[in-house]
Amino acid sequence: MKKTLFIATALLLLTFHLSPLTSQAQERFDVSAFGGLNFCQIDGDDAGSYSHTGLRAGVGTSFFLGWDERTPWRVVVELAFSQKGSRIVRDDFQRTISLNYVELPIMMSYTLLDHRLRLAAGVAPAVQVGASVLDYGGEHNAAHEANYKRFDYLPLVASARYLFTDNLGFELRFQTSMLSITEQNAHPAYRIVTSNTGSFNRSISAGFSYTF
Prior knowledge:
The protein is of the alpha+beta class. The protein is built from 2 helices and 14 strands, in the order αββββββββαββββββ.
C-alpha cells in the first residue's frame, strides 16, 4: 500500500513538473488529421480535364523554427494516401487510369489572420503503391500499368487552409509533378523546358482537417 501511494505521488508530482513542458511542446508542434477529394488529370495522356476523382487522407504536423512562438513561419510535414489518375473518354476510345500514392509533403507555411489562414508551398515526393489502367470500361491494360514509375520524386504543392474554429479547418491544394511519371509516352507533355517530357500528375484537392 505504501509503495503504491509513493508511486502515485511521484507520478502526480512528475505530471505537474512536466505540464509546462507539455504546454510548450503543444505551442511548438501541432498534429492534424485530414481527408478530402482529389480532382485529377494527367498531362500527356491526350485528355485535358479534371475528370478523375480520388481520395486523399492522412496526418500531419507543423512546427516553428527558432525560439519565438509568435513567428508566422512554420514547417509543415505530412504523410498521406492519395489517389490520382485520369479518365479519357472519346467516341472511339475509353480509358481510366487510377494511381495510388503514399506521399510525404514538406512545406514552408506562413500564417495570417491570427493564425486562422495558413498559406504553404513545397514539395511532395511520393511512392506509387498501385496502378490500374482499364480500357473500354473494364479491360486491364497490363503494359500501360507497368509503364508508370514507382516514384514521383518532385511534385510541387501549394495550399491554403482556413480554420473555422481552433480545430476544424478547410483546405484547398494544387499539386503538379515536375518529372515524368511514365517510362514512355506516345503524346508527351513537358514541364519548364521542352526536353523534360513525359506524363505529369496534376490535381486540385479540397477537404477538411482537424488539428489537435
